Recover the amino acids of this structure.
């Protein structure tokens, strides 16, 4: 999974005009899909923060699920380790070995990704999004979000929000 640029989004929408039953000998479609594949390959190759790594071991998968289900809480690493019946030291090693990041880095990224989802898919006020992602102050959230996404939450929302909100 990778972030899709506005160009790639439009190209994907445009590509849908051909449908699954397109003539495989259509030279225009063939050229178009070659370019689209190149764009996607380029996007997939660049470093991106808008993804979460996946665990190999069952215990670490459970720890990740437990963490993501509690992003709004002031969660302690000890509670996560206890929930999956591992010592803190063992769980920390699993994070390093399987995800190449610490639990603190993982929860921060998960919170920021959840914030981007809420900013682009809901009309919730930024202050509520801050609380829903585990921040106790709007200023701390804004600072963390700006560092993560390169723009403050309101600017990010304006640049990336869907044209209409579901709620």
């Amino acid at each position: 999974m990778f972030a899709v640029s506005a160009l790639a989004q439009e190209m994907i929408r445009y590509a849908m005009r051909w449908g699954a039953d397109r003539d495989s000998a259509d030279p225009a479609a063939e050229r178009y899909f070659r370019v689209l594949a190149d764009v996607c390959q380029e996007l997939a190759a660049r470093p991106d923060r808008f993804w979460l790594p996946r665990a190999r071991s069952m215990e670490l998968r459970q720890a990740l699920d437990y963490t993501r289900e509690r992003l709004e809480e002031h969660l302690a690493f000890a509670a996560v380790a206890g929930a999956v019946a591992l010592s803190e030291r063992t769980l920390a090693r699993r994070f390093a070995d399987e995800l190449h990041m610490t639990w603190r880095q993982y929860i921060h990224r998960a919170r920021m990704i959840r914030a981007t989802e809420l900013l682009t898919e809901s009309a919730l006020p930024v202050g509520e999004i801050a609380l829903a992602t585990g921040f106790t102050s709007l200023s701390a959230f804004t600072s963390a979000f700006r560092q993560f996404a390169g723009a403050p939450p309101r600017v990010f929302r304006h640049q990336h929000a869907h044209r209409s909100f579901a709620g």
About this structure: The radius of gyration is 20 Å. The longest helix spans residues 27-45. The chain has three domains: 6-45, 58-100, 106-160.
